[in-house]
Design goal:
Length: about 450
C-alpha cells in the first residue's frame, strides 16, 4: 500500500513541478496584467508547499520516522520566514526570484533527506542561518553608493584568498579547495566568484580602453591561474567564462570573445597534459563504461540512474542513487532523474533557466553600468555552474566537480548562491527606485516647462 501511495505522490509532484515551471515563464510575458502576475506568484507558492508536503509524506511512508515529518515542518517554517520577511522588508522585491530560491531549496531538502538525513539536517541549518544573515544584502546594495570605488580592493582580496587556499588548503579529490576551521569547512572560491564579478564590473564600468582591458585581463588571468594550480578546474572555468562574457558585453568587440575562446582551448589542452586527474576525467567522459571499474564508475552509475528513471522516475526510495559516489554533491541531478524522472528533472532545469532570464532582464533594465554588469556577471556565474553540473552528470562534458546551486549539499555553495539571489533582489529594488527617480525628474522638468509657458502667456 505504501508503495502505491509513493507512486501516486510521485506523479502528483511531477504535475505540480510542471505547473510551476509553466508559470515561471508565463509571468514573464509582456502585456500580462499585474493582477494576473500576483495570482501566478501565489499559485507558485502553493506549488512550493505542495511539493514539500508530498515529498516528505513519501519519505515518511517509507521510513516511518517521525523525525522526517518534524524536519519537513521545519523546512516549511523556513519558507514561511523567507516569504513573509522579504514581503515585509522588501515590498518591491521580485517575487519570482524569491519563489525560485524556495523551490530549488525545496527539491534539495527532499533529495538530501532521502539520500543522507544527517547531511539534510546540516543543509537546513546552513540555509536558515544564511537566509537570516543575508537578508540585509539587498539593503547594502540599495543604500551603499560607493561599491564601485573598491575595484582593486576586490582584486586583492580575491587573489590573496585563492593563493592562501592553493598553499594551505586541504586536499579534496586531488584539488585544494577548502579550509576547515572549528569543524566547519569553507570553500573560499564560492565567495570569491562574487567578489570577482564586483571587480570586473567596477573596472569595466569606468573604462573599456585597450590599456585598461589588458590590466583587467591580467588580474582575471591570475585568478584563473591560481585556481588551475589548485586543480579547482570547475571554478577556474566559471571565472574565465564569466569574465569573457562580461568583457564582450562591455566592449562589444567580437575579437576579445574569439581570442578568449582560443585561449580557453589552449589552456584546456595544457591542463590535460599537466594534470593526471584531468586526464582521468576526460577518459571517463569519452567512454566511462570502458573504465567502469575505475575512473568511469561515477559517470557510468549516473548514466545508469538516469536511464533507469526514464521519463517518470522510480519514486522516492524506489531507486538506487546511493550507488553513485558523491551523489549528494556533484551528482544529485542523477538522483533526481532516477527517482523523480526526466520530466521532473527537465522542469528543474527550466526553473534554473527562468532564474537566468530574470537576472538578465534585471541587468538590461538597469541604467548604471556597474550594477548592470554585476547582474549580468552573477547571472552568468549561476547558469554556467548549472551547465557544468548537469553537463558532467549527463556526460555532455567532462565532470568538473561543481555543485547544483541551492540543490546539492554544500555549505559554501549554498550560502554563496543565497548571497547571489539577495544581490539580485537588491539590484531589482535599486532599479525600481532608479525608475521612480528618473520619472520624478521628468515630471519635475515638465511642470517647470508648463509654468514657464504659462508665465509667458501672462
Amino acid at each position: 500500500m505504501d508503495t502505491i501511495l509513493i507512486e501516486i505522490i510521485k506523479y502528483l509532484m511531477i504535475i505540480i513541478m510542471a505547473l510551476y515551471s509553466y508559470r515561471s515563464f508565463s509571468v514573464l510575458r509582456r502585456g500580462k496584467k499585474e493582477e494576473d502576475r500576483s495570482f501566478s506568484y501565489m499559485l507558485q507558492r502553493t506549488d512550493i508547499f505542495g511539493i514539500e508536503l508530498l515529498g516528505f509524506l513519501a519519505l515518511y511512508l517509507h521510513t516511518q520516522d517521525t523525525d522526517v515529518l518534524i524536519y519537513g515542518a521545519m523546512v516549511c517554517g523556513l519558507f514561511i520566514f523567507i516569504i513573509l520577511s522579504y514581503g515585509i522588508i522588501y515590498r518591491d522585491a521580485p517575487k519570482l526570484v524569491i519563489n525560485h530560491m524556495c523551490m530549488l531549496l525545496s527539491v534539495g531538502f527532499i533529495m538530501l533527506a532521502r539520500l543522507d538525513f544527517d547531511l539534510a539536517k546540516k543543509q537546513l541549518l546552513m540555509a536558515a542561518a544564511g537566509s537570516a544573515l543575508m537578508i540585509l544584502v539587498p539593503v547594502i546594495i540599495k543604500k551603499i553608493k560607493i561599491l564601485d570605488l573598491f575595484t582593486w580592493f576586490y582584486a586583492a582580496v580575491g587573489i590573496v584568498s585563492l593563493a592562501a587556499v592553493a598553499v594551505m588548503g586541504s586536499l579534496s579529490y586531488g584539488a585544494r579547495l577548502s579550509f576547515t576551521v572549528g569543524g566547519v569547512t569553507l570553500q573560499p572560491s564560492e565567495f570569491i566568484k562574487i567578489i570577482f564579478v564586483f571587480f570586473v564590473a567596477a573596472a569595466l564600468s569606468k573604462s573599456t580602453e585597450f590599456s585598461v582591458v589588458v590590466k583587467i585581463t591580467v588580474v582575471a588571468a591570475i585568478h584563473v591561474l591560481i585556481l588551475a594550480l589548485s586543480k579547482d578546474l570547475g571554478a577556474a572555468l566559471i571565472f574565465f567564462m564569466v569574465y569573457l562574457v562580461m568583457l564582450y558585453v562591455a566592449t562589444r568587440k567580437p575579437l576579445y570573445l574569439f581570442a578568449g575562446l582560443i585561449c580557453a582551448g589552449l589552456a584546456s589542452a595544457i591542463a590535460y597534459f599537466l594534470f593526471d586527474h584531468v586526464k582521468t576525467r576526460v577518459t571517463a567522459w569519452k567512454d566511462p563504461f570502458s573504465v567502469i571499474d575505475g575512473a568511469g564508475y561515477q559517470v557510468a552509475q549516473a548514466l545508469f540512474a538516469i536511464g533507469s528513471g526514464g521519463w517518470f522516475g522510480s519514486g522516492l526510495y524506489q531507486g538506487a542513487p546511493t550507488s553513485i559516489p558523491v551523489v549528494e554533491q556533484d551528482f544529485i541531478f542523477a538522483a533526481i532523474s532516477e527517482e523523480m524522472g526526466g520530466v521532473f528533472a527537465i522542469c528543474l532545469l527550466l526553473i534554473c533557466v527562468s532564474c537566468f532570464v530574470m537576472f538578465l532582464n534585471i541587468a538590461m533594465r538597469i541604467r548604471v553600468k556597474f550594477y548592470k554588469y554585476i547582474a549580468l556577471g552573477l547571472g552568468c556565474t549561476y547558469i554556467f555552474q548549472v551547465f557544468l553540473t548537469v553537463g558532467g552528470v549527463t556526460k555532455f562534458i567532462p565532470s568538473t566537480g561543481v555543485t547544483l546551486p541551492l540543490v546539492s549539499y554544500g555549505g559554501s555553495s549554498l550560502i554563496s548562491t543565497i548571497i547571489i539571489f539577495n544581490i539580485i533582489l537588491g539590484l531589482y529594488i535599486y532599479k525600481e527606485n532608479e525608475d521612480e527617480y528618473i520619472e520624478k525628474r521628468k515630471n519635475g522638468k515638465k511642470r517647470k516647462q508648463d509654468k514657464t509657458v504659462f508665465t509667458d502667456l501672462e
